[in-house]
Amino acid sequence: MKFIDEAKIEVIAGDGGNGVASFCREKFRPFGGPDGGDGGKGGSIWAVADRNINTLVDYRFSKLHKARDGENGRGADCYGKGADDIFLRMPVGTLVVDHNTGEHIADLTEHDQVVLLAKGGEGGWGNIHFKSSTNRAPRQKSDGKEGERRELRLELKVLADIGLLGQPNAGKSTFITAVSNARPKIADYPFTTLHPNLGVVRVSHEKSFVIADIPGLIEGAADGAGLGVQFLRHLQRTGLLLHIVDLAPFEDTVDPVKEAKAIVKELQKYDTALFEKPRWLVLNKLDMVPEEDRKKRVKDFIKRFGWKGPVFEISALTRDGCAELITEIYGYLEQKKALEHRAEETHMTEEARGIASIDPDDPRFKVID
Q1: Cα–Cα dist 365/238, whole Å
Q2: How far apart are CA 109 and CA 103, in angstroms?
C-alpha cells in the first residue's frame, strides 16, 4: 500500500429534520390538540484512531464525507428518525487541522480514540412543544438546525520513541534492520528509503521501544532538495534523535564532517524545536575502517564536528556496538519517563493543595534569595 501522510478532506454533517405542526383528528376527538412530532437529528462525523492503519491513502481519493439528514417529524406524535453517524478511521498519530482557521481539532495519539469532527444538526420541534395554557392549538413549529461543515487537513506524524537522522546511505536502514523487526529495502544507492519505516526494538520480553527511519537528508533539503524534508514531521513526536554518520564513505571526496554539519543545518532550518531535541551521535560502518585507524578517525571527526554530546561507535552490518547502544537508549527513555511522571505527580499535588506556579518575572512577587 502506498504511504500517504497528508490529505485534505471536507466533512458535512447532516441537517436536523423539521418539526411538524399537526393536530389529532379522530372519530370521537375532533379537536384533540397538537400532536406534531420533532425532527430527527442529523448524522455527525467522527474520527477514530486505528493502530491497524498506517497511511492516509484512503482520504487522498475519497475527499467528501457527508452524513445523512434527520427525517422530518410526523403527526400522531411520530418523531423523525435520527441519521446514523459516520466514523472515519485514521492512523494513530494523525493530526486534524481546520484548513481555513488553522485550529487543531484533534490529535489522535491512542488506539480507539474518538473525536467529533462535525456535529449533526438538532431536529426541529413539533407544535406539541408550543402548547400552553393560553395557546391550546399552536401552529408554531421549528425547522431543524444545519449540520456543521468543515474543510480539514490531515497530517500523519508517526508515533516513535527514537528517530533516525542521516545522509542517504549512512546505514540507517541497515541499523533499524539489525536492532528491530523492521525490514526496509536496503541497497547501495541513494534514497533507497522512500517513506518512513517503523521498527519495534525488543530489549526483553516485556521491554521495548519504537524507532523511526525516514528518507535521508541532503544539503538544501529544507528548500525542497531530496526526499527527507517532507518526512521530518515524523520525528517531531520522538523523544531522542540518533544522528547516524557514515565514517567510511566509498568515495574519498566525501567528507563525513561536512555531511554531518549539513544535516544539523537542515534540521535547524526546518524546525527549531526539532533541532533542540536531545540528539546522540552514532558513528557507523567502523568495520570498514582499519582497526589501527579507528581511534584516530573517531577522535578527528568529533573534534572537527565540534560535538560535545554522547557518541557511540557501531557497525550496523556486523552489529558490533548495537546491543550497547540499545541498552543505553532504553535506559535513557526509562529515565525520561520517570522524570515526566514525577513532574506530573508534583503538578497534581500542587493543584490539590491550591498552589499555583509563580512566574519570577511577575512584578507582584519578589524573589528572596
Answers
A1: 37
A2: 17
Q: Which fold has domain 162-334?
A: Rossmann fold (3.40.50)
Q: What are the domain boundaries of the chain?
A: 6-156, 162-334
pLDDT tens digits, 32-86: 778 888 999 999 999 999 888 877 878 888 889 999 999 998 888 888 899 999 9
- Residue count of the chain: 369
In this structure, how many other beta carbons lie within 10 angstroms of the beta carbon of residue 209? 21
Side-chain half-sphere exposure of 286, counting CA atoms within 13 A: 22
Q: How far apart are CA 83 and CA 69, in angstroms?
A: 6
Domain 6-156 class?
Answer: mainly beta
CA atoms of 365 and 349, how far apart (whole Å): 22
How do residues 205-235 score in pLDDT, each as one tens digit? 778 888 888 765 655 544 444 444 566 777 7
Look at phi and psi of residue 294 and say left if phi exceeds 0, alpha if psi is from -120 to 50, else beta: alpha
Q: Which residue has cell 478511521?
A: 89
> Looking at the whole model, is its pTM more than 0.85?
no
Q: Provide the terminal-to-terminal Cα distance of the chain, rounded to the nearest Å.
A: 62
H/E element, 45? strand 45-50
